[in-house]
Amino acid sequence: MSNDNNIKDDKNVKMLTLYSEDDTQHLAKQLAALPLTGSVWLAGDLGAGKTTLTRYWLQALGHKGAVKSPTYTLVEPYSISQDNGTTKPVYHADLYRLQDPEELSFIGFDEYLDEPNALVIIEWASRADSYLPQPTVFIDMTQSDSNDDKESRQVTIRLSKVGQAQGLDVSSLNI
Ligand code: ADP
Ligand code: MG
């Protein structure tokens, strides 16, 4: 599955068309239901919908308040109460404005990544990809070029080797 020209739906890769923001919310709910830990790299151009997907994802995980874009802070931390009485640490990062990957060690990013049971959702991981550990999941979002199709997005969800080793399965994700 390393050949991107040969992507097909199986338990490691899922390609979906989201026709509306409601579809994005529906996908976010299903992502929130996966037993995900480690990091997720969210790739796509500005406006592709990475922050929007993350906002719905955090809400589906049980977060009640606002979700700020971490464009200036680099990371926004969340601590989400679960039904079983535990708390799920979730970090939402946006590395678009990262000047140097070293900044990540200044803000203690490694500790977030090492935290057991934490989920770290990273926009623009490409700014620091040689510094970051392999994510569990890669999600790529692409906006449709057509102007009469403003809400359409193509999404590819792909398990890394780490995600595959955890026995995750993305084949049932759907809208
Ligand atoms: P990014 O974080 O990738 O730069 P944002 O999530 O900040 O993108 O912006 C995406 C914009 O597109 C938002 O204004 C959102 O309301 C809009 N949008 C329209 N349709 C969708 C969709 N299907 N999924 C996500 N966002 C959408
Ligand atoms: Mg964003």
State the gist of this model.
The chain has 175 residues and is an alpha/beta fold.
Question: Key features?
Answer:
single chain, seven-stranded mixed sheet, disordered N terminus, 175 residues, binds magnesium ion, alpha/beta, binds adenosine-5'-diphosphate, 23% helix
Per-chain topology:
Elements (H helix, E strand, L loop, with lengths): L12 E6 L2 H13 L4 E6 L6 H11 L14 E7 L5 E8 L7 H5 L2 H6 L4 E5 L13 E7 L9 E7 L1 H5 L10
The chain binds adenosine-5'-diphosphate and magnesium ion.
Adenosine-5'-diphosphate binds next to helix 1 and helix 2.
Notes on the structure:
- The chain is built from five helices and seven strands, in the order E-H-E-H-E-E-H-H-E-E-E-H.
- It has helices at 21-33, 50-60, 102-106, 109-114, 161-165, and strands spanning 13-18, 38-43, 75-81, 87-94, 119-123, 137-143, 153-159.
- The chain has a seven-stranded mixed sheet with strand order 1-7-6-2-5-4-3.
- Helix 1 packs across helix 2 (50-60).
- It is globular.
- Magnesium ion is lined by residues 50-51, 69, 94, 123.
